[in-house]
Amino acid sequence: MAKVSVLNVAVLENPSPFHNPFRFEISFECSEALTDDLEWKIIYVGSAESEEFDQILDSVLVGPVPAGRHMFVFQADAPNPSLIPETDAVGVTVVLITCTYHGQEFIRVGYYVNNEYPNPELRENPPLKPDFSQLQRNILASNPRVTRFHINWDNQEDRLEAIENQDPALDYGLPLSYTPAKGLALPGCIPSLLPENSMDCI
Amino acid sequence: MKLLKPTWVNHNGKPIFSVDIHPDGTKFATGGQGQDSGKVVIWNMSPVLQEDDEKDENIPKMLCQMDNHLACVNCVRWSNSGMYLASGGDDKLIMVWKRATYIGPSTVFGSSGKLANVEQWRCVSILRSHSGDVMDVAWSPHDAWLASCSVDNTVVIWNAVKFPEILATLRGHSGLVKGLTWDPVGKYIASQADDRSLKVWRTLDWQLETSITKPFDECGGTTHVLRLSWSPDGHYLVSAHAMNNSGPTAQIIEREGWKTNMDFVGHRKAVTVVKFNPKIFKKKQKNGSSAKPSCPYCCCAVGSKDRSLSVWLTCLKRPLVVIHELFDKSIMDISWTLNGLGILVCSMDGSVAFLDFSQDELGDPLSEEEKSRIHQSTYGKSLAIMTEAQLSTAVIENPEMLKYQRRQQQQQLDQKGATARETASASSVTGVVNGESLEDIRKNLLKKQVETRTADGRRRITPLCIAQLDTGDFSTAFFNSIPLSGSLAGTMLSSHSSQQLLPLDSSTPNSFGASKSCTEPVAATSARPAGESISKDSMIATSTPAALSPSVLTTPSKIEPMKAFDSRFTERSKATPGAPSLTSVTSTAVERLKDHNLVKEMRPRDLLESSSDSDEKVPLAKPSSLSKRKLELEVETVEKKKKGRPRKDSRLLPMSLSVQSPAALTAEKEAMCLSAPALALKLPIPGPQRAFTLQVSSDPSMYIEVENEVTAVGGVKLSRLKCNREGKEWETVLTSRILTAAGSCDVVCVACEKRTLSVFSTCGRRLLPPILLPSPISTLHCTGSYVMALTAAATLSVWDVHRQVVVVKEESLHSILAGNLAAVTFPFWV
User: Which of A76, A78, A150, B547 could form a disulfide with A58 if both were Cys (CB 3.0 to 4.6 A apart)?
Assistant: First the structure.
């Protein structure tokens, strides 16, 4: 049974200019004191086409974690624009927050991010080369997609077994490679492509 | 009979393996397969019972779902108290759930609104021991144990008050164990397995009582579960899948001799589950017909792989009702409502059916008292079969009852504490943490949070703790130390306050002039007839000196439900002829005392007679080797205790009491012996003396002088109490003759002829208003700030003068003074 359950993730300062750092206020509950730290990561998906363009914006250790409810703010710098394919700069993409314990990922929270020009003129006639300074990032905070994985929370020896027991289908979280063509401005259309069972494996 | 299939109770089409109705009848749990895990769901009962509630969208149907089991859940069972839910599954785990009452998240993060959990159930214990799928779990009567069985061929008995402690692993089955049931009296547990046997195990030593194989010889191991059931009166055990003349049956096994002469016949395929109605019934009395008292009977539901359900009454030869093709697949589990009029049935096809009977169909259910009376007449008094109400007033007859009571009290305390904590944490979650509102904290969280760098240069954030958790109450808080039992603590307070209300005795120095108008102080702690003491009080009395409960004495601070329901559990039904054991005699002694206390005259009994005493109605053939072993064990503990006791506490306060008995024997070992005539008790009263002196201590030198009837003022004779402490003297006068005095370096106290007890400081200040004793004083003693008074009616009271509390309030010592003893040593346990 999961020792840590995420109660809420609040997206702070949203929407904000592209270059502003990401800020998430994460509250979680821990049922038993953890011997080791949790590792949280923010991953920015640069392109739906390939994992190659995923950027780990930051990774922090969180600890010590006694039993109880806790919260912290996870702040990470904006993605490096030079690593984002030009064709993917504007439009919908995804930012992921993952947490691992003993190297095992047990939760993955995905948010749709819409990058667009607030300026109507630019929106109508976007520059060929994206102007990141003009882009605004809007995270669809109301609709997080949460995937939970069973992991081994106890001693190290059993860990192998737990990993073996994991459903391989779930091993790679959001199947972003299936994300439809860009320019689809309504993120609401995408959820059907995400694992439907994601809510059930609490 | 009404039949209903609430379609909204489902696991999205996945099989439901188990169903259990909460003891309070407001909800029920189902267990089975989830999407990619095991699933436990708690449902609201009222939409099942009432159509209006079913239609009302404001009434939630699903209360909580838990997907924590990694694989299919085979069994869900509520504890008898309803506080816990145990679930066992294919992931080899048993999880114990408890409701978290603080306001938790109303929705699961990331889920849409419809999945909101109305109630929050938190897993408080995970029990790991089985090496294969857990097939069935069962709570013992009164929730002392939890049993689980598995395809690893074993049954594991867990200590339910101290999870995850394992008390025993029952080995002996050579096939998958697929069902468990406790004897309602708590003496046995039965298991049924694929090895074509049904085994009955004793809870006394967790050894095999009997293995029944004959009715199962023809069985093929093809059912998913074999849920057997014991009748509420304890007489019958009914198995799942058995065969008779190549037809599937549910075998009836009689408790008496484990005879297998009867069965329930008629199902076309193997019986998967049998469940007795928790009620015992009697024939409905029709108006006008002659009120013939009929035999009480039981009611039993049988579910089968043939998808049909039958309901039987033990007084009828044919089933009361058979419902064919209730489901598309095999029936997996059955649960009765506590009132005995409804059943929920679940099936492998993922649906649930509810049957509602009327009293005309089943009969009049006996009340819990009547049921308990039936139990007691058959099995004697024991813990498992007594109702809550009876237990709180019952005379403690064995250590288990005492333990149970303490546990209850502790639980209540813990609960209160937990509630307090929970409310506190609730307010802190929603409201403030350390005086700061959550909003303020959130605003500044980024600035305030502690961020460090680890050795390898990584960022490390220390999260802000916003609420402590109650991590369930199976914690070590249980029984680690019980300084005083709860009821004592309670009476202590109440008696304390009642004493404060006592009118001041006129003999107080400053109200001396008004002595004439003095009225006898009317105390709330009023006089009690000497004979009437064995009632509610004696129960507490036995719990305090602990002389009667060897196991309590040997491990005073720990409750070990191990050996819990041993012979004393149903002590009347266990005879140990020829070789009396001290402990069993003790328990018999109490009972005997109770039986005879109104008759005041107790006949002499020797050890042999009393231990082989034959009130029993259930003769038990026991392998002699076992009883011998048990005896050795018990004798050993008694001996240990004897050795241990005198040395146990250096503050032991030896005190002699002489009982007016012609044949007074000495020596402590006689204390528990019943061999001499027992008498009605009246302890000696010190006669009034003209004057006496008492040396309290020599360093500092302190002594008390008493002079009775020194003067008379207005017709009232006054007695003088004088105290000298290292040359400093004080004196006071009292309006009644002083019978006895006692003192320590902290207090001086005297007891007067008028039954008043006065307590002074060593400087002469009255520390307490005069206390009216229930009967004349016999012995008075002081140690430190404690004052102990023993009255002629053998009630003991102890006060802590400094804290101004009653430590022991009028506890009757009858039970330990009965018999023939000349000396009693009171351990000073405070």
Answer: A76
Place of tokens 């013939």: B292
CB neighbours of B601 closer than 8 A, spacing ≥ 6?
Answer: B680
B810 within domain boundaries: yes
User: B70: which chain A residues are within 8 Å (Cβ-Cβ)?
Assistant: 150, 165
pTM above 0.80, yes or no: no
Helix residue ranges, H only, B388-475 = 388-393, 399-430, 438-448
DSSP-based three-state secondary structure for B98: strand
Q: Which helix H or strand E contains B627, and what residues bound it?
A: helix B624-648
What is the DSSP pairing of strand A54-62 with strand B459-462?
parallel
- Give Cα A84 to chain centroid, integer Å: 17
Phi, psi of B413 (to 5 degrees): -60, -45
The closest of B135, B126, B124, B131 to B101, measured between CA atoms, is B124
> Residue A25 belongs to what domain range?
4-151
Q: Nearest-CA neighbor of A58 among A36, A77, A82, A45?
A: A77
Nearest to B126 by CA among A201, A200, A3: A3
The domain that contains B756 carries what CATH number?
2.130.10.10
Read off the pLDDT of residues A141-163 as tens digits, 9 standing for 90 and up. 888 888 888 888 876 544 444 44
pLDDT tens-digit map of B221-247: 678 999 999 999 888 999 999 998 888
> What is the DSSP secondary structure assignment for residue B297, as one 8-state letter?
B
Q: How many domains does chain A have?
A: 1
Minimal CA–CA distance to B3: which of B306, B278, B311, B276? Answer: B311
Confidence tier at B582 by pLDDT (50, 70, 90): very low
Residue B503 in this model has a pLDDT that exceeds 70: no
Q: Provide the domain count of chain B.
A: 1
Q: How far apart are CA B723 and CA B764, in angstroms?
A: 8
Q: Which residue in chain A has the smallest CA separation from B470?
A: A68
Strands B691-698 and B134-139: unpaired
Structural domain including B717 reads 691-817
Residue B94: inside a domain:
no
Chains A & B: contacts with CB separation below 8 Å: 116
Measured at the CA of B811, the angle between CA B808 and CA B817, to 5 degrees, comes to 125
Give me the helices (H) in B243-397, please. 359-362, 368-379, 388-393
CB atoms within 10 A of CB B141: 19
In this structure, is residue A171 part of a structural domain?
Answer: no
To the nearest 10°, the Cα dihedral for B212, B215, B216, B219?
180
* Residue B297, both tokens: 């009977």
Backbone angles phi, psi at B570, to 5 degrees: -130, 60
Q: Between B112, B454, B466, which is nearest A71 by CB? A: B466
Classify B489 as helix, strand or coil.
helix
Chain A positions touching B442 (Cβ under 8 A) are 10, 25, 71
Write down how long chain B is.
Answer: 830
Query: What gap in Å lies between CA B330 and CA B302, rounded to an integer?
Result: 12
The minimum CA-CA distance between B422 and chain A, rounded to whole Å, is: 12
Q: Are B300 and B267 in contact (CB under 8 A)?
A: no
Q: Which CATH number does the domain housing residue A133 bear?
A: 2.60.40.1490
Residue B758 lies in a domain: yes
The residue to which tokens 């009049």 are assigned? B364
The count of C-alpha atoms lying within 13 angstroms of the C-alpha of B815, restricted to the half-sphere facing its C-beta, is: 32
Would residue A180 count as lying in a domain?
Answer: no
Dihedral of the CA atoms B20, B21, B27, B29 (nearest 10)? Answer: 0
Tens-place pLDDT, residues B765-788: 888 888 888 888 888 988 888 999
The reply to whether A185 falls in a domain is no
Of the candidates B731, B213, B111, the residue with the CA atom closest to the CA atom of residue A199: B111
Contacts of B458 in chain A (CB under 8 A): 59-61
Chain A residues touching residue B123 (CB < 8 angstroms): 1, 31
Q: Is residue A95 part of a domain?
A: yes
Is B211 within a domain?
no
